[in-house]
Design brief:
It is a single chain. By secondary structure, the protein is mainly α. The chain has one domain. It contains 4 helices and no strands. The relative contact order is 0.17.
Length: about 130
């Protein structure tokens, strides 16, 4: 498989995480997301929930098709890092089950940040809107 095909496959696999999550929030999960954000003590939970939709769905789709691919990768990396730190902060939890699942999700997000930084450096490849 050539490099550009692998970059396309990588973009598809990463987008599988973000795009459906954003779509789900948009199509009925926005209130629940805002409630979860509020439970973490963050300000303006409705605005932050809408911002999550923009990033997950909008930037996720941009990353998928390779439009402003490097910037999309960087935005998704920052989003994933913030999500890891604010929502999967296992080090401040006391329930063993919560610690275990949040530790896994924290490191999953950190690994995604690493992969997205690779995408930022390499760019979206030939099979992208940026190269069309």
């Amino acid at each position: 498989m050539n490099k550009d095909a692998v970059l396309l496959l990588g973009r598809i696999l990463v987008a599988i995480l973000f795009v459906p999550a954003g779509w789900g929030k948009l199509m009925g999960g926005l209130a629940g997301t805002a409630g979860y954000i509020a439970s973490k003590g963050l300000p303006m939970p409705g605005v932050l929930a809408a911002g999550a939709v923009v990033v997950e769905l909008g930037v996720g789709l941009a990353f998928l098709v390779g439009w402003k691919g490097r910037w999309a990768a960087l935005i998704l990396a920052l989003f994933s890092l913030v999500a890891a730190l604010l929502f999967h902060n296992f080090w401040s939890m006391t329930d063993a089950a919560a610690i275990s699942s949040n530790r896994i999700n924290f490191y999953k997000n950190i690994a995604m940040v690493g992969g997205l930084l690779f995408a930022y450096v390499t760019g979206p490849g030939r099979y992208s809107v940026d190269r069309a």
